[in-house]
Each structure stands twice: as C-alpha cells, then as structure tokens.
Design a protein that fits this description.
Elements lengths: L2 H26 L5 H23 L3 E6 L4 E4 L1 H7 L3 H4 L4 H4 L5 H14 L1 E10 L5 E13 L2 E10 L1 H23 L3 E7 L5 E6 L1 H6 L4 H6 L2 H6 L5 H14 L3 E9 L2 E13 L5 E9 L1 H34 L1 H17 L5 H32 L7 E5 H18 L3 E5 L5 E5 H17 L6 E8 L4 E8 L6 H6 L20 H12 L4 E5 L5 E8 L4
Parallel strand pairs: 12-14
Antiparallel strand pairs: 1-2, 1-5, 3-4, 4-5, 6-7, 6-10, 8-9, 9-10, 11-13, 14-15, 15-17, 16-17
Helix pairs in contact: 1-2, 13-14, 15-16, 16-18
Length: about 525
Amino acid sequence: MNYQDKTNVELQIAFKELQEKYESLNKFIGEESAEHKRTIEALKESEYKYKIAFETSRDSINITERDGTYIDVNEGFTNISGYTREDVVGKLTSEINIWAIREDLEKLSNGLKEKGYVENFESIFRCKDGSLKTALISANIIILNNEPHVHVIAHDITERKQMEELILLSKQRYDNLVSNIPVGVYVLHSKPDSTFALEYISPKMAKMVGLSVESLMSSGDSLFKAIHPDDQESFMRMNQDGIQQKRSFDWKGRIVDEGVTRWMHISSQPQELECGDILWNGLVVDITEQMQAKAEIEHQNAELQKTNAEKDKFFSIIAHDLRSPFNGFLGITQLMAEELPSLSMAEIQEIAIKMRESASNIYRLLNNLLEWAQIHQGAILFNPEIIRLKILVSSCMDVILESAKSKRIEIDLDIPDGLNIFADVNMLQTILRNLLSNAIKFTPRGGKINFAAKISDNNNVEISISDTGIGMSQFLLDNLFRLDVQTSRKGTDGEPGSGIGILLCKEFVEKNNGKLSVKSEEGNGSTFYFTLPRNSS
C-alpha cells in the first residue's frame, strides 16, 4: 500500500469513528450512564487520531462546506500550495482560485453528487506564487456537527509527472533519432535454451524488411519468412550459432518484399545479463546499391576480360593466321618469278589455281576481320528485307564451288522453291559463305555436304548445313563460340582457319532474330542449324 492510500484509509477510519461517536453522543446525550462516558472517551480518542493524521500528513488535506467555503486545511496543504490556513479559512474555493482547470472542479462536484466520493483523478492546481502543480485528487462526504462537509486529499505528483515527461521526451528523441538514421535498429532477447524474442524494432527496420513493427514484435519468425529462400539456411544457421556460442552475428543476404529483392547487412553484438540471458543490440543496413555496384563492377571486369581476349585473338589472327596465307601466296609468286620460263602451261595453270585459292582465303579472312570490327563498333547497318532463299544460296555457291570441286566434295541443295526469309542480305551472305566454307574445309576429299531449308514452328525458317567431315570433340563444341579459347584448326587439306568466321555467323544470326546451334561428333561430321524469320512480324 502506497503512502497516499495509507493516508486515505487512516483518515477515513478516523472520520468514520468520529462520526459514529458523535451519533452515539447525540443519542445518549443527557444520560449520565457508564456507556455515555465510554462514548465520550472513544470520541476523544477518535478526534485525537484524526487530528494526528490530519496534521502529520504530507498530502494536502482540506475540509470545506458544501458551498465550497474552507473550514480547515493542514500543513501539507500549505507546503504544497503556499496558502496558509489564515489565507483560505472562511473563503470560497472560487475566491482562492486554486483550480487551474475549471472542468476539474466540476468533475469533483459531479462525482460527489453521483457517488458521494471521487478517487484518484489527475488535476492541475495553481499555487499562491502562480506556479502549477499536478496532483491526484480524492474526495468524499463526511458529517461534522450533523452537517455534510467535503473532505479533499491531494497527493502531489508534480515531480513524478516531470520525470515521466522527461522520460517520454527522451524516448521521443531516441525514436526520432533512430527513425531518421539510414539504418534499422533492433534489440533481441535470447535465453540459454535458444528461445528468443524481439524487444525493440525501429520503424526504419520494419520498413526496410517490408513488415510492421507489430508483426515483428509478436513473432520473430516473421522476419525469417521475409528472407530470400536461397538465403534462409545461412541466416538461421548463423543466428543459432551466434546465440549458442554468444558471438557476434554478421550476415549479408536478400530480403524479398512484395516481389522486390533487396540486399541487407544484419549485424549485432551480444550483451550478457546476470541471469544468463543475452541482449543482442543490432543494426540493419540496406546494401542493395553496394551489391548492385559490385555486380556491375564484376560484369564490367568480365566484359573487360572478354575485350582483352578479343584483342589478343585479333593480334593472334593478324600475327599468325593472316601471315601464313600471305607467306604461301608470296612463295608461289616467288616460284613463278624464278622459274616461269621453264614451267609448262599445265604447271602454270596449277600455280594459278593455288594462287586463286590462297587469295580467296586471304580475302575471306580479311573480310571477316573487317565485318567483326565493324559490328563491334556499331558501324554495320542492319537493313532486313524479304529474300528468296534459293536464289541467294545459288549466288553464294559460285564463290565456293571451286574449293568444293578441287576436293571432289558433292553439295546437295534441298530448298523449296519460293521459300522466303526476312533478313539482311549482306549479313546472310556472310553467314552462308562462312558455314559452307567451313563444311568444305573440314570435309575430306570425296565427302558430301547437304544444304537444307524448311519452315519450322513459330513462322520461322530452319536452315541446316551438314557435312561428312571430321567433326568436333566435346571441348571444341563447348568452346566453339568463345573468342578467349583457341578453337581454330586447319582443314583436311591444310586449309588455314581463324575461328573468327563462326563467331561472326553467331552474331549475324542473332542480329537477324535467329538462333545458331550445332551438333557434331568427332569423326562423324557436323551439322549447323540456324533459324530466321519468314517475315517482319
């Protein structure tokens, strides 16, 4: 029981005893009996108890008539309000104007009328020096000299209210600070049995993980559900390990909020309590931008490595693959310059054929290099149009027929009449020349090449070029479209190769909204497939 309640009880008991004794006195007044004497003594004792309680109480106590006229006040009233007994006795409460809020006086009056008492309602009263104080007011009706009077007790809670306001202000400042810093804050309370509960969640943290403060406080499992499925295992393992080992928690992973994935860095430090429990004071930082920047840097590094590989490949082609055919060409011309008078027409014709083949290889390589450089610089124009496929293939065949004849390779065409495709003519010619030339290059003498075209699904045309050549190993298949891996090799008659042509084919096919693929088995030939749209839709 607190001091105020104890005082109220003592006063109520004293008043009750006093009232009972006065009634007993009035009942037996004039009688000189022993009972009357005992009543008188009891009355005096009650008066003494009330007087002691009235005078020694630190609470403010005042007694007024029903109209509000002060009859008596105690020292506690003076100490709290500054008004002495002489200042107020005989005056109305309205004259003293001690009630700072008029409605509180009305609340007191209405409560006494309705119930005969009022308990512990908070009010503000004005002191003699004009200062304001807060008090808990209790009041009841007592009977003095057969007349009802109002007995009021005020317990000063000004300091307590000031402290509460300071605490509230401090909390508001803390919440405001925590809400405005760019990180989330939390406090987790764990027990030795590994159970835990969140004791504090800042609004910023709740917003960062896409949950409400209430849902996080009610169940810590709600945070687990927000974690990306691929990262949940690492989070839970690290969380349990931190609780059991009492060591710092430091985790980076993804949070999914309404389909949006963000990266978070969650860390906390353990603070062991005397009871063996642990408080984890933690921070949550959104590191999405950093992770995206890191991914971008890694992507740029990969692109840089790819660019460097392409540069190295170009240097390799220029230094070796381009020099070799020129050396052969120069050797033939030197032979003619030195021995032409002694050569027969048949020998001269054979030399001319070799020179033509060598010049064709050099031209094709130079043309591929030029087109590769242009497409990577964005200098090649893309002008797709409707093309009659059979006619275009026939024109490309004229360039490579001599090479096929010299190796006695048969080429079969299976292209429906009237089959059209929608593509850039120049790019398609480059694709066909390279794929047909490669087929001839890697097919032994007396082999066969089949060129076929058909309408496939999705309104596309599928073109395939099959050969009975030497095929490719799995290593070559896996790295065929990589410039940073050496895949070039000589043909069955020693024809030079750079590997740049097949890469150019892939880029041109994809530029025309198609897809290039290959099937091959070492020793059993190869088949290249690519698709192109039939029209612009």
